[in-house]
């Protein structure tokens, strides 16, 4: 059973749009997930602009991907969330749906400071 950053069972992040590396609505990860898509975030316009400036335009639709709008919940790469945090534009995080592996990149206190309820 996958664990979240709080030590509990990993909750689903989003089914609309369907997120997760495995497109199962959950920020689960595995050996084939090189990007470590483990942070369940509620994306903001500021974060989406930041991500696009780094070469990953999450607003642009693609096959099997509707494109994101502010307020959508999405499993972000742990390293991208940390990069956004360091730049002062980290989006809010649903801790119950954020995989424990995130703690390899980000301190729990920093995640808690950006906590949003489900």
Give a concise summary.
With 118 residues, the chain is of the alpha+beta class. The protein is 20% helix and 9% strand.
Over all CA atoms, what is the radius of gyration? Answer: 13 Å
**H-E string:** EHEHH
State the strand order across the main sheet: 1-2
Mean pLDDT: 96
Q: Which structural class best describes the helix and strand composition? A: alpha+beta
The low-confidence parts are none
Please summarize the sheet with the most strands: 2 strands, antiparallel
Number of separate helices = 3
Distance between the termini: 20 Å
Tell me, what's the shape? Answer: globular
Number of strands: 2
Helical content band: 10-25%
Tell me the fraction of residues in β-strands, as a range: 5-15%
Protein name: DUF2237 domain-containing protein
Pfam families: DUF2237
């Amino acid at each position: 059973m996958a664990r979240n950053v709080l030590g509990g069972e990993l909750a689903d992040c989003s089914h609309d749009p369907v997120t997760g590396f495995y497109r199962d609505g959950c920020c689960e990860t595995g050996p084939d997930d090189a990007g470590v898509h483990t942070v369940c975030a509620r994306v903001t316009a500021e974060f989406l602009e930041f991500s696009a400036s780094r070469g990953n335009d999450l607003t642009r639709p693609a096959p099997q991907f509707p494109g994101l709008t502010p307020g959508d919940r999405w499993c972000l790469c742990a390293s991208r969330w940390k990069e956004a945090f360091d730049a002062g534009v980290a989006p809010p995080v649903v801790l119950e749906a954020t995989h424990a592996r995130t703690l390899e990149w980000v301190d729990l206190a920093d995640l808690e400071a950006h906590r949003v309820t489900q």
